[in-house]
Amino acid sequence: MERDAAAARVASPQAATKYVDHEAAIPVQEETRPSKTASAPRRPVTLHQLSFREHSEQNLAALGLIDRLCLRFLNFVVARRALAFCVVTGFYVALAGAGIAFGCLTPSPQYQYEWIIDDKRSTRNMDMRLAAVDAVDQLDAGDLHARKQPHQLIGIWVEYAGPSGNIFTPTRLQEICEMEATFYRPAKYQDVCVLDNDGQCAIPPLSIVGQFYGVEWLAGLVQNGTGTCDLLATAEVEATWISMISAANATREGFNEYGIFMEKGAVAVGATSKTRSLLSVGQPLEGFASTRDRTERQTKTYLAYFEAVEQDLWDHFGVESTFFQTPYFAPWRRNGLKLRYFSWLIARLENLRMQEMDLYFIIFTIIFVDLCIRAYTRSHAFTAAALAQIQLSIPVTAFLYRIAFRIEYFGSLHLCSIFLALGIGADDNFVLFDAWRQAQADVPRVENADETTLRRLLYAFSRTMDTVFNTSLTTALAFLCLGLSPIMPVRTFGIFAAMVVVCNYVMVLTMIPTCLILCDGCYFWPRQCAREAATKSSAPKSERRIFPSIKPFFEKIYLRYMSWTLSCAKGIPIGAWLSVWCFLVLGVFLGYRALHLEMPREQEELFPKKHMFMGFLNDMANDYEAGADDQYCRVFYTFGINNLGKENYDEYKPDYKRGYAKWNRAFDLHAPAARLALKGFCDTVRAVPCSEQECSMGLLHLPESTICFYEEFEAWKAAGYGNSSLGLSNATADEFYGELASFRESTYPGMMLGHESDGSTWNDYIGFIDGHLRYVTVSTSLTMKQYSAIQERREVINRVIHFVDGQQPPLPPELGDLTYDGGWEFLWTDTFEALRASLFEGLAICFPLAFAVLLFSTENLLVSLYAIFGIALIVASVLGTIEYIYGWDLGIVESLMGNLVVGFSVDYTIHLGHMFVAADKEHNLRHRVDRFSFAIRKMGSTVVVGAVTTLGAGLFLLPCQLVSLNKLGLLMITTIFFSLLYSFGFVMPLLAAAGPSGDRFAFRPLSALKRMVSKAHGPERAEADGLQGSWYHRGPPVNLLFGVGSSTLRLP
């Protein structure tokens, strides 16, 4: 019968229309009364109780320290409204102005190493080798070494594609020539081109135009910017094409040399519909020791050239960059020929340009949040105050972040916190507004109008402080889990986002109350003040301000469905159980799909699928008969360096002062054992087997790619170069190193093997520093191509590490330590693996913390268990949706959002769970169904409207052009969607169907600890602590955990 009555009460909103604060109305029982003596202890009082109690000296003295400070602040706000508003708002405006004036919102430069983990073995090896290269004695004096080598990171791939048939016709070649000439004609090309031995711009060896127009014609274009793309004779074109096909069919060398220009299958068919060129810029620039020397200044010079090329190409194809769309979305075609090109520096330019475009969507997000707040509160004043608070929170946080905490890095990822702040800040403001609105009905009037206002403000303030504290704490902790990441942008973003959450919480509690009191009553669009509204209508304010479309749904549909039962079910809420089981099955299925998430199987997507750059590098690696050397991962094996030292390194400027090499003092290549071991090592490198999927030809290293300087040094001596009368076997150390230095100066890699010079030197391979040989390097290429899947890449990297570790023990001491440097492919593999590890480590930290917050906020073990299980289903469903519906891998954005899901999803369950328990504390509702109904009516609309604003913040990220922002928006929407779904469809129905009634499963650890301490000191101590009588034997009342006594003074 009791259960039937409770179910009936759910469907009857009249049973819960008027509430009385039962906590304030509970009579003082005789057994719990303290003895009326002068030494009777004071029981603690909270701000919430003070809303209903007499403001006597005894009650005020019983407040805790924080509550006393809050009461003083609120007294000041009510007593000096205008002054309080000016002081508090002026303070935050001043902080925000300082943050903007000091450039705290200015993004940091994009650093090459910002996503690289410094303490990884691969990173340290690369830093050691590059530091050693920077320290070597240059081959020539002055800047003659400048731009002698192509820059490996910013080469330009250019692809030309025709509609069908063979692309090599006179007309199409003329069009290809005009397109490629665009890269050579800008005057700034002369500042960045690769230089030959005469100091002139070198002829690009992998230019398809040079194959047909000739080297001499191309030299004039490259060096002087002159030359006309004339129409070639058909016979000449056909003869050149036939010679290329014949060479490719004749030898392996010919296949590698000419297959690079032909699509897959072209050698067999005798025709190719597309071709390509690889164009390079030189490094380092004049006046710089290496690419790591004053990186930012060198980058500006390169960017000036690429911007000129980009603008010329836009003019050539008649495209332009608009306010909302990049010119790279539409295909670039001219006379039937399609051009695609890519360089990492141009991609960087495009990324920055698209970021600037996408940030304009913040305006639409602000407008959307404005409309949501205005529609829900019907207050111009509150809407203006809330939006001002949310927007001020970003520069205020930035000021504290960069000036107070001295964290100098502020990347593009940090700007995403603006969207997060709009959603989170609006949610916090909704909670405060609803509490203030409910205070109008729950807190009775007293004779003094200011005291009435103060009591209602205490009611709203205390409820918001507790409720928003719980949600802000869990969200901030979820962000701080990112602060544990070894990846600097992720770590600093986690810290900044957590500070934004905390800053919003503090500003909502300090700035918004001053606005509420200053504009007291001016809430409704049709009226100017609440006093006029009260005289014109007898309806309670709380009823008039309800968001019109939400409450009827809960009253007429949701509560009725959840309480639906059958006569034979004995009052069991069938509707609630059906909802629980349906969402449990959904969560289990999506959780199973989440187990199939993998590391990225290809290059991380930076741009949308229709963007020119999207998939370009994969096409370059897989669509042509042969690949260029730089399409395979290059690895450098170095002897003689044993450690890396650092001085004044700033982790927030990771491109600078990355360290210096420490030499192995035992290194001595003159020792016969060292030379013999080095030759043997070169032979071993060429024969290392590899059975991994990404290894081709069953070898770890690419045949004919190993550069072993010592083999060529011996050949050089055997050919009679140097001191012909001096043999290496009987040379002294000084004579040996003198010959090696002469070899280093007079030859280039491959010279003794009959290869043409490609501009490379022995400068980086034979490390003479201050006239002493400190290190030597053997370089080779892996059979693994660049941009392969992370998991497969890791298997090959492990092979390299195993090879190095296996080679080190038998090496003689004179050869020193053996290290490997696999370049950026190895470093980015560590980054992706760290992102995945931080996801699971963060979840392992977030879940216990979230459970602890739930436990202390709800004070009920069963409610907390239900809530944390619901959160687990939300996380599983979001990750399962990523894999099953979106088809994504576990990339950068997905890994970042994994931890944030916990922070976002816990908000709604805490709001509803806290109100479920508060139904007993504040309104003496003991049965679970009554508590369920109370929580839905009190907090349902607040949760929904708060979710709508966060959904809106994510919704306006969907049109963003950058894939990362687009994914972030879609994941925000997915997270909020599942959070709402499981909060109202799983957690709350489960509480209605099997939640605690009365004090069942109550869990108050702080109260229990205090009771244990009191018992240990005997009844006298218990009496002194206010735990005498029934408290000492039965335990404290429900609110003792937060210092609230159950005995109150009832106000008339």
UniProtKB/TrEMBL annotation:
The keyword Transport does not apply. It comes from the Eukaryota. GO terms for cellular component: membrane. It holds the Pfam family Sterol-sensing. Residues 419-518 form the SSD domain. The chain crosses the membrane at residues 82-105, 359-376, 382-401, 468-487, 493-518, 572-592, 837-856, 863-886, 898-918, 939-958, 970-994. One of its GO terms (molecular function) is transmembrane transporter activity. It is a multi-pass membrane protein. Keywords: Glycoprotein, Membrane, Transmembrane, Transmembrane helix. Signal peptide: none annotated. It is found in: Membrane. InterPro entries: Dispatched_Hh_regulator (IPR052081), HMGCR/SNAP/NPC1-like_SSD (IPR053958), MMPL_dom (IPR004869), SSD (IPR000731). The keyword Transmembrane helix applies. Belongs to the dispatched family. This is SSD domain-containing protein.
